[in-house]
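User: Predict structure, ligand NDP.
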Amino acid sequence: VRRFERVERREPFVEHLQVSGEVDWFSLISVISLLCFAPFIVFFFVMACDQYQCSVTQPLFDLVQGKTTLLSIWARAPSFTWSAAKIYAVWVTFQVFLYMCVPDVVHKVIPGYAGGVQDGARTPAGLINKYEINGLQSWIITHVLWAVNAHSLHWFPPTIIFDHWIPLMWCANILGYTVSTFAFIKAHHFPTNAEDCKFTGNIFYNFMMGIEFNPRIGKWFDFKLFFNGRPGIVAWTLINLSYMAKQQELYGQVSNSMILVNVLQALYVLDFFWNEAWYLKTIDICHDHFGWYLGWGDCVWLPYLYTLQGLYLVYHPVQLTNIQALAVLSLGLAGYYIFRSTNRQKDLFRRTEGACSIWGRKPTYIECSYRSSDGGVHRSKLMTSGFWGVARHFNYTGDLMGSLAYCAACGFGHVLPYFYIVYMTILLVHRCVRDEHRCSSKYGKDWTRYTDAVPYRLIPGLF
Ligand code: NDP
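Assistant: Predicted complex:
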């Protein structure tokens, strides 16, 4: 199984790698385009809010009509400040401290929570890394301190993140590029596990998609787990709280749409930390190598683009009617329920090898076999009941419903808040196609039997 995974379980661009280890032109152009344009996409959205009240079309019209230039937009952007640098340094240092120095006690207190030292998936070289799972604890400590400060200590205003949003973006970029460059140099000169390194012969590709699989400093500081979870996802809910505080400061009240965005996204974030041990077995940790894609993405793309709805609501405090608010809440909760239940059903099914109950019945499934690269034949099962009988990736459908709810909370005044659902749709449809391609080559005719039994990918009757 391990050797099969080594061959088949690859990430998007890796599928385009030729046997020689060279990168084909399509992959190379994709990588260079992302390296060049992704930072400008983030800059564009943030500046559209700062200078154009969150209109994404107005700056484009102004540029086309010659009313403004890219240079003048750039010149009006708030620059790097040392106070933002101090805030950012304190923030990252504090998260490193929580990650490295505070062993998890939450799993001893809350039954059913899998925290503390946990095993990751087996790497292609056959290693099983150990992880200290303490994300939920870090999240709780950080948010309790945030609340204590807001209500009693008043060391800093709760709007601090919004107030330094653009200078903080420069700091996040500095960290994102530093970490990616460090990971690149480290992989060449002092890799954590040389056998798990992947060199393609193309410097841009290596820099972007990463060389080392699980770079670490010392025994416990794992780059992937730390950067994805801590500066990125712990920050997500704090950023939203800061937007909420800004609305209160500017308008004397908080809109129900802002509360909805805060609540629904907090649910998603808490779910992530509650299931952090499960996350060790998903594509991000099991398949991705650590490069700019993860390092810069976690530091900049995630905190800046996943939080666009809250930012938009600071500029446009939408007040939904009760019916609209209820509709958004129902969509968000239904999406979350489907997302979580679908993932749980597969987890249970695979853990018990089908000896479980799904929706009150014994699950139905298709017996599959596949051949690993060493010639061995292995057996597996693909479930055809529960949500896995409704569509082949109904967990993605639930995720997309939740994402749409965040956007819909912002009303229909502007397109900017809808960036998230467009991005998530591209991400998950691409992931779905990629996963099916992999499963089809893994299971062959058995996969065809499965797709005959469950004909739709995301939306029954449509796709
Ligand atoms: P999945 O959890 O959907 O796992 C896909 C794998 O499950 C397949 O490769 C196959 O693996 C196995 N499988 C497929 N069909 C069946 C079946 N019928 N029965 C049993 N096993 C099956 O993939 P991800 O890791 O991509 O997603 C995990 C979650 O993370 C999703 O809910 C997704 O929405 C979420 N996500 C969120 C993102 C975000 O930015 N917010 C980004 C990416 C993901 P095998 O080879 O073992 O058969």
